[in-house]
Amino acid sequence: MTTVYRNPGLDLERGTAGGEHAPCAMSRRHFLLTSGATTFTTMVVLNAGTALAQKAPARVAVFERKFIARLSELEVDVPVDFTYPDEGAYAESMLVKLGVPAGGGIGPDRDVVAFNYTCTHQGGPLQETYRGATKSLGPCPLHLSTYDLTRHGILISGQAYQSLPQVLLELEGDEIYAVGIFGLIFGRYDNLKG
Ligand code: FES
What are the tens digits of pLDDT across the range 140-188? Predict the structure, then answer.
């Protein structure tokens, strides 16, 4: 298991700037994080609790802040579609209130998360594949990859080998904003360039 150890600019668990540091279960040994308007450095503990434990730097890129939805209007297991960080290819994304705490979740129950809709394998569309019973996206219509939205979009099954990019969220009062992306969007060599 990987634990976020230090995060001076952005609290990944709560998606708020300048928040308290909090443990955060991650799926990969290495975070592929992209460049953008603002970049924060965070320390990540790999293989926490083992003799191989070590710290490694990771970067969190923060893009333009975009209003997505009001917390009070969300219903459990009813996704809200949006595009981020732009209107270009593969920018389709979804926000959902899972009803259970999740990695990177915001709100009083830490259960509101957002993810890109494009399968990391070969770009299959994951729209309309959200399953409330398993809190997952998938199976992908192309090769059946399925992703766990409670654990930063890690792969549950299928052909993909990378997690689904997670949209970083910020809560201001009742308003939810997208502020960055954790991971590289399929089909892009930079999240801000198609
Ligand atoms: S494109 Fe989604 S599993 Fe292959």
Answer: 999 999 999 999 999 999 999 999 999 999 999 999 999 999 999 999 9
CATH class of 2-182: mainly beta
> What Cα–Cα distance (Å) separates residue 70 from each residue in 48, 83, 90?
36, 16, 24
Higher pLDDT: 27 or 109? It is 109
Listed in order, strand segments (DSSP E) in 9-53 are 10-11, 16-17, 25-26, 38-46
Instruction: Give residue-wise pLDDT tens across range 89-104.
Output: 999 999 999 999 999 9
Six token digits for residue 60: 């969190």
List phi, psi (to 5°) of 63: -100, -165
Q: How far apart are CA 126 and CA 129, in angstroms?
A: 6
Domain extent listing, the chain:
2-182
The pLDDT assigned to 63 comes to 86
Contact 61, 84 (CB under 8 A): no
Spacing, Cα 123 to ligand 1 middle (Å): 6
pTM of this prediction exceeds 0.85: no
Mutate to test the pocket of ligand 1, among 90, 115, 116, 119 (most ligand atoms within 8 A of CB): 119
> pLDDT band at 33, cuts 50/70/90?
very low
Cα–Cα distance for residue pair 194/192, rounded to 1 Å = 7
